Protein 1
Amino acid sequence: MDFRLSEEQEAIRAMALDFARDELAPHAIDWDQQKHFPVETLRAAAALGMAGIYIRDDVGGTGLTRLDAAIIIEALATGCPAIASFVSIHNMCAGMIDRYGTEAQRRQFLPRLLTMETLASYCLTEPGSGSDAAALKTRAVREGDAYLLTGQKQFISGAGESGLYIVMARSGEEGPKGISAFIVEKDTPGLTFGANEKKMGWHAQPTRAVMLDNVRVSAENRLGAEGEGFRIAMAGLDGGRLNIAAASLGGAEAAFDKALAYVEERRAFGRAIGEFQALQFRLADMATDLEIARTFLWRAAAALDAADPEATKLCAMAKRFVTDRCFAVANDALQLHGGYGYLADYGVEKIVRDLRVHQILEGTNEIMRLIVSRAIMGRK
Amino acid sequence: MTNMRSELKRLMHIVVCIKQVPDSAQIRVHPVTNTIMRQGVPTIINPYDLFALEEALKVRDYHGGEVTVLTMGPPMAEDALRKALTYGADRAVLLTDRHFAGSDTLATSFALSQAIAQIGKSFGTPDIVFTGKQTIDGDTAQVGPGIAKRLNLVQLTYVAKIASIDFSARKITVERRSEGGTQVLESKLPCLITMLEGTAAIRRGSLEDALRAARSEIVKWNAAEAGIEDMTKCGLRGSPTVVKRVFAPTPRAEKAAQIDTTEKTVRDVADELVTSIFTHQPALEHELSSSRSA
């Protein structure tokens, strides 16, 4: 076993780190403060191949692995976790179309998604069903060669700005087997959006409710077979969870680096605070946590790439562990900054706010424990 | 006729000399010893060399041809070459040999010029050799002209922009920044250009470019492979420059004076400034008034 990245992986990592340093980090605090969604910057990332990281290359995708994607998202998140996370969500949606879409769907939608001329949003959660996703109530009623979708989706990242929505809706019986997935375009009549939610972090991307009122979607835009939607939605999430974990990791690294520099500059009691062993030990623990998180994240990503039967469990473990530990590291970095860490200008409190939601979305960390315990105990 | 046709058909070959340097923006000075803390400082491609590379790539994209990047340095300088390949260079040559250690600008320009001659033999004679105007670590601006002199190339220094190239007529027009304005210079090819910070933004390699760069073979030459015979001109032996002392600038004891400009006319401010200067430099006032009367 060789724990080193390959030369190719080192190269894509360096490239993504450069992009994060030059194009994301200098603006991250501003975007957060102004609640600005930098679509042009996203398109610049897309032009470099970051909108279709694991999309097959016949439609212009970059054709990389999940492990490569985790490396790229981690690097982007050192500049801005909120933007890295949106890149992750967009890649997840594109990946679902690439993997489960028909040839016609792939050719119709993926080229636009790969340039980010069209952004994509993932619509599973509803006001009344979050963790209990299989209980969703949005209905898809078949009418001739189309479906009429009616219902509401909640906490949708990119909603209102995205041009394409992957909507999970009930086309049949109760439970997971009655759910189908649909590709819905923004300009479809009956599709409307709520106000941009006021939230704790992730200010650089909008979050809105998505309302569907008899939205007519051609049967040609159903993704996968009828009743396959829940499985597709969950399969997308395995990789999505790795990426969200990677975004936490990159954010925590950035916060850690800020703390490392700060303790050498800040003086108290006649010396740099970095000379106090209590703080040195804290930094040692933070660095160790980051290393563990990264090693395990890569292990889970490699399992998903290898279609390991344990991949879902490992992805859930990684998502829970990495997002929890990295939030703690970022929060410690804030603490090491003292009062300055609480000020927006230092950029640490922003990372803490951004990373907090990673413990909640793409399946809460409680649901991750549920997935893991089911897997290890063999229960349903 | 055959010769002429093959000359016309020949694609342009551009060599860009780059150097891996410490990222000066990330160098910190030790607060107590005042020495530069080099540990853990990441390396970058010398920024002026990046502008040179960007200009070379633009010329190639427009006229066709190939860009070869060349660096002299330790084996780790390969990282800089890979990055240059990511930006779109076609070929990379690493000139590395322990005998090059301790080279000053004289020895460096000797070794690089020999390597460029070897590149010419192996991959086609270069039409343009680019360097940055200077490196941010050495700041001498001597290596580019040194190469030009040794290879007998026309040297166009401090170039801000390439205005046009007529490859079939073997002519190039550049804008050169000089004191008092911009010179528009026409030259024959081949030539050597040292680039200022360019007008265009430096391109960014895509993920695919990064992958291609990682998969590329880098040409590695030691002194002998680069065709260097006279080793007395290399490394410390070939370097007459002796660095006697390195020191950090001493901080000035006096703070800059401030003039409050809020409720004053421009004339008042100017008067106050001149008075203040003369107070600090009484000799200057005397000198100025005597030169005026003379």
Protein 2
Amino acid sequence: MAKSMESWAEELPAEYRHRTLAEILRKEAAWILGLTAVAVFILVRWGAQFDYWQYVVLASWYVGLLLAGVAWRPLQWATVASVLPALGAVWLYAHGQTAENNFLLHYVLQGVAAAMWMSVLLLLATGAYLLHFFSGREAVGRWATRLTWGGVIFGFIGLGVRWRETYLGHPSWGHIPVSNLWEVFVLFCATTPLFYLYYEKKAQNRSLGAFIMPLVAAAVGFLLWLTLAQHMDRVEPLIPALQSFWMKLHVPMMFVGYANFTIASLIGAAYLLREGSVRRRGILAARLPDADLMDEVMYRAIALGFLFFTVATILGAVWAARAWGGFWSWDPKETWALIVWLNYAGLLHARVVKGWRGRSMAWWSFLSLWVVSFCFLGVNMFLSGLHSYGKL
Amino acid sequence: MQTVSRVHSAQSSRLRLLLQFLGSMRLAVSLLVLLAIASIIGTILSQQQPYDNYQLQFGSFWFQVYRELGLYNVYRTLWYTGIVAFLVLSTATCVTRNGPRMLRDMRALPIRQRRAAIRAQEYFFSTDAELSAEGMANRLAALLRQAGFRPRLEREGSEFYVAARKGRFHRLGYFLTHLAIILICAAALYNADIPVKWAEWTGALQPAKNFDLPLSEIPRSAWMPLHNPAYRGIITLPEGQTADAVFELAGAGYLVQPLPFRIHLRSFHVSYYSTGMPRDFVSDVVLYSPSGKVLKSGIIRVNHPMSYDGVEIYQSSFSDGGSLLHLQSYVLGMPALQPGQLTGRVGQTLQAGGSGYSVQLKNFSLYNVMPRTAVGDKPDPKNPMVNLGPSYTYVVHDPQGGAAEFKTYFSPISRNGQGYFVQGYRQALGDPYHYVYLPIGPNGGISLFLNYLAALQVAARGGAQASPAVFQQIFAMLAARVAPNMSTAEQDRFVQASLNALAQMRDYPAPFILHLQSFDHRWAAGLQVTKWPGTVPIYWGCVALVLGIFILFYLPQRRIWARVVEDREGGSHLELGASADRNKREFAREFAAWERALRTPPGTEDTTLNC
Ligand code: HEM
């Protein structure tokens, strides 16, 4: 009658069961082995030219991707789906093909072309999320998610191929493509939806897309303007201060921060609108996840953003110490990064220690969007300083 | 006796109140936000400009007010530093106040917990089961093991206690972050060289105000000690020269920091991309000991400083190091027979003949590849950039005290087959340049143009009418004399170009034109020299900060206590309490899943769980 102890082993549903390391290794073997093989290949192929710091970069990417892929499986195939086409383009370039004589490069894979595909897909995705929100049709929602994935993947293909293209202009030009406003906007447009997709999965609810994707669409609009009117999509060489290994870590990490902060503040906006709607029994109250869940996702996003933003700011300071001879020069960009950081430190303390929840947090998080955008864009547009890479 | 102790306790309660205030969360949040807001000021007002600029910008009244507030160097004012110090103090108080409690938290978990304490946990449920108490305790332990805990059991008579936790060292995250903040600020303070700041404040050190003094004449009161623990200074070093001191800006003046070695700049080099953008700045330097021994030699590039004995040397800027310029001066309106010769180094001021005019050679720059539009040329989409070669700028002071600035490019520019020298002039600093395109004659140089100019003036004085035919005719006469080989088309082009140049020169602010004949270039490198002993602690502080934040966010502490008692029918009664300090929602769902599992009598499969 009484169960033996072993038979209790299955008592918890799988999602609450702890995965042992051996289980994880077995389940994720393909991912882990594949990633390890790539890392080893890179080491064997280029290791001879590596200096100390390049090992650090490789290790960071390896560990980061490994853990992120294990924590969120869709990232695994998304990585493959962006890396393979990018490698294909590199292969084509290596075999004398160019955007002029190769159809595939010209219309699809070339950095700028892929960024345009990203733009189109993200705009469509935004439309689909809005349609899904107002019509409530699940099928549309699924398409919205797929289109977003497509946009994200094209964004990363574009960045990957462009990295190669910076070397094609002249070998001495080569750099990771995060050095001007156009390039960082592609990065922003690809990173923000990627993290959104993660939270969408966590929250099991697509309605937040109708709040977050319109901002991404606005960023896409700005990117298109930069491309079509300002011609900022041209590859340019780097000024001496930017020729640093640190850029490879500093800038991408900064954008993990920006993406998560942006998502958190738009969830804050959704939270506030939902509150108003609950009283009127409006559509927002019906569609959006419950208040507690939004509060939790908002906190998660801010926490992840804060962690990366902290690391990125520290790396920026270390870089500044190498390039300008001082950790901190109170340059406007640096100072605004500090302002953003202090702002979120304040928010986290209010939440964790004072137990602020809900409305006040949502307001704080929403208003922080202005602080973050000023740090990201306003500084480049309105203030002058040492961070002149993003000038319009 | 009584009064004494009352005074004593009043004092200690005041102290306690102060500590409570300093360690309060309200203060911490306020200080964080206040600091953020205060930091905005320095990004709106550009910092550490020469005081003259501010005076111009704000007028003398607001200039004074802002200066009193320290807004020109906000981040080094007493009040700003004060906020930071307050934050550090508050953090320190917070750590000392919370510390003992948190350390206690990290100790081994007591397995047995009072009933009331279990019931008081954030998450709690109790259930009765047919299972024996021991069976139930084992069942719970098995379940917790599945959830990744390592439960511990203890039996007391017929009662069983189970306890488990994850994230035992969560509190370590708190210590790491907050101690790191203190460490980083303290090290930064050390780097900021407090003793010198103090000496400056008390007046023992007085910044020198005159920027034109040679090193030997700078008053000793502006010299910092040789063994200053921390400093950050700059030096502009012309090629071939040596320095053993650097300068640190202080308010409207500067201080001198002697170095433990001498820096000799062997050469400086700039390389360019094909677009004309600078690619690299390289200084080739040698460090000598005071006695002349070579200590180290090598190159310094942007992002690649040189370090010697705790002192770092950075490539921070470059400028002209006093290039030698040979100039020809043509007086406007006089035939260009024998141009005057002027020779001088950048930085010098020359007298132009006996005219009362002086020429101050301001700067020389070796390469000028720039967009055509930047020098007033028409845009050319196919060929947007133009190489104008070296350029030099000079200021001409007239005898009446007026001044104008000129910028002359060495290499000619070509437009529709006619060559030009480009020269810019402006009446006031900050104005855009007006550009003059001086046409080049068939034998090079601008003498044909100047002769033509002189001939036109003579004709005008003689009463000639200004008409195209007259202009043409005067040029034909001149050309017959000095440039007989010009074709008619060339002549027409030249006349048109000259007339355009004349129109561009309507406001030309000097009675002569200077033409660069040759130059002997010399660079100067701007080097920054720092000594920052606090660097290594800062790095460790950063590591601790990041690690601490990671622990706080992602390794939350979860604690579980349970008590199982036997009831009269041989069944058992379970009371399970738990707490989580982050991600509560997630934990609440997990806890609910445990509850569902434990409430289900063993043996009955709960289909809802296995879907
Ligand atoms: C620049 C200064 C500070 C920074 C960067 C900082 C950073 C942090 C961070 C990132 C957290 C984690 C928040 C979370 O888990 O969501 C935290 C928690 C906390 N902070 Fe601070 N903090 C600072 C100053 C202070 C001060 C002045 C106090 C004291 C009044 C304080 C008290 C606390 C407490 C009590 C916690 C909660 C720890 C826990 O429950 O585990 N902090 N801090």
Protein 3
Amino acid sequence: MRTALILLFLLAVASIPGSLIPQERVDPSAVFLWKQEHPKLTPAFERLGMFSVFSSVWFSAIYLLLMLSLLGCIIPRLRVYARAVRQRPPKAPRQLSRLAAYDTWPTDEPPEVVADRARELLSSQRRRIETFGPPTTPADGAGSAEIVVSAEKGYLREAGNLLFHVAVVVVLVGVAVTGLFGFKGSAAVITGQGFSNTLVQYDDFTPGTRFDESELAPFSFTVEDFDVRWERDGAGRGTPLTFSADLAVSDEPGATPYDYDLRVNHPLEVGGASVYLVGHGYAPRVTVRDGAGNVASSGSTVFLPQDGSFVSFGVIKAPYASPTQLGFEGYFFPTAALCDGQPCSTFPDADNPVLSLIAYRGDLGLDQGRPQSVYVLDKSRMQRFETPGGNPRALLLSPGETIQLGDGAGSITFDGYDRWVQLQINRAPGKVVPLVGVLAAIVGLLGSLFVRPRRTWVRIRRADGRTVVEVAALDRVSGGDPAVHVAEVGAALRPAAPPAPRQHTPPEESP
Amino acid sequence: MTETLAGLSNNAVYAATVVYALAMLAHVAEWAMARALPADVATAGSRSALVSAGRTTASLDADSSAADSSAADSSARPGGVGTAAAGQGASPAEVERSDKFGRIGLSLTVLGLLLHAVGVVTRGVAAGRVPWGSMYEFSITSTLAVALAYVFLVRRYKIRWLGLLVTGFLVIVLGLAVIVLYRPVAPLVPALHSYWLAIHVSAAAIAGGALTVGALASALYLVRSSMEAKALAQPEKPRTGFLWRAPAAVDIDRLSYRVHAFAFPLWTFAVLAGAIWAEYAWGRYWGWDPKEVWAFITWVVYAAYLHARATAGWQGRAAAYVALFGYATFIFNFVGINLFGSGLHAYSGM
Ligand code: HEM
């Protein structure tokens, strides 16, 4: 128990760094920035697994130990409990008057009458009852003969407690297993384009260790439209109001497609996987012509939003341009304006779209055989187009506008923009297991917290020619008030005639 | 219409803050008047502090507490605080004066609660949704839960002795909400368009209200139990003042336990509902986002609190410290992570 307590605390402390230091799995770009800012700490932190705390050796060690201590505790307790539920209520302690909740009174009723009434009362309160004492009353004056009615309730507390702890194990195991057989992937899809569930269509794909690629269900869909609306005025100006993507989904090749309105909080379930709408952005449509006037590149390109104003960064590559390859890098401003002399966007919707690019020519480096990110322009073998003054030449384009690059290199036309959606596609078989586990844990917890095991004794004996009744109760856990219970039992067992004063004080004040 | 309601909400929240402040002043007066009053016979007498402290502890140990062992503890009985205090009596007029301010404080708190409820409800109607979409709204809603919990518990368990702490808490948090956190009514971001917002956040707010009352009780318990320990060492010192008139440490402790026992399953449920919602909204039920990490830490610390209560040697003061630590993690999650943190839960409106 003390071990479990210490391990619980350790687990709490161990998860703190995970919330203060950026985590690889939560926000990889924040990790990247953090590493740049803290070059000295980075190596040590990497060795300690600080960027993936929750899968680090030490974190896993703590929770494995916790699980072991949990199992090591549940199993023997199950055995003890199996015995305890079959047990009868125990004998009374010798000195009932020493219990915190105690009441006594003399009466002239015969002991068995009181005992019967006590049995009836206590069993009507759904307590388990056991009577100790002579089956028949001995002759008056036998003195030592006594009847004890012993009652107990609250066996479900321990059951609830055990259920809770077993459920914690179920949750831990369930979480671990769910990841093994599933996968997690993401893809950015431009409106009007499609996605089919094959590896090459994912931008990012993380299989569980037991996942096999052949298990990818053959579904596909087209993102026909994406609707996004922002608050235009008032305090919340610029906050998004709705996102919704119209999908046409096919369960398998050749199947008739059906429509699905994909929204946040409204994922698509298809082929055992779930598709979530997790983000969106702009994809400027650009046509690049080369020196010969041929179209070297055309279509929309995904630009990544940089902040809530949706200023978006992107790269356009035209490898087929001649005489030299062309590359562009820059920003898309949905509602372009000047803020403090700098170009900025004053609203996330595309009220005044402007594309601001720097152009390069030379070798894009695509033939090196190295994989290249579509969001990065390798400028090492490229040359910037500059103004006569030697500064980079910013190409500012409104929709429909064309700018000549000069030097016979070609031109660029900003045709307009599309939107794209960021989709997350997961498959997590068995995810109901942790859910059921937590629900069971809550049920167990309620039992474990609100069922109060309590033992009650009513001892009836003859003394000095009268019958003396004693009532006492003992709670086996804190939080209850046995004195109140004893007072109630006392009130119910006293002979009805003159109502006795309610009395549940400790004995020192009622000698 | 929306504007009018939003204005009404703001005025009601201001008014509630002011009325709570008056209630707090009344409770300050209640304490001040009780400075010279001796320990209350009702609380220090029959079920006195140290007397029952020794005994209840014995009845707490889960299994070993056979009745005989509790008998051994009763050695602490004679000459306990109770018997000593029971001899002295306060003049009824003085007691009545202090008590009157206590009753005024409670009445004002109830009035404040009504205004507060109007403020929260009209805010929700003005926004056309549940009133917990920003940090300001969550503050006014969860403090409403605190006030409700307190008024309910006063009726049920006579906890008016917590009045000063509760009203003080309400004034500080509502004041900060109005001054620092205030945001006009705004629509929800799409991530919050879900009935899970109602389920998850209301469970968290109610659990938070109960945890607050539990933490205040734990703090008062620590003060009272050290007073009792000192009194035992110096039995001749007079025991006067409001805190001596509050219930005995054991009783405060029991209340604190009950409130925590209510809050913990609810908190578990709030975390679970959050996980299910995250599954719908973000495609994963648990992602170790900072907010999630701290909800987990809070959960673990309170689980440890419940364990501590069941472990011999960790009851009483140690358990109370664990409870306060748990509350600190809860508050940090709300304040620290919302203001400075990042992650997917960044909808605080800051
Ligand atoms: C992450 C959550 C929890 C873990 C890992 C955990 C672990 C454990 C372990 C390992 C034990 C047995 C240790 C022993 O007997 O030596 C134990 C016992 C116990 N736990 Fe938990 N526990 C957790 C949550 C809770 C909660 C929330 C409660 C509150 C109701 C609770 C109540 C108890 C009780 C009453 C015992 C038995 C005390 C006894 O038999 O002496 N546990 N727990």
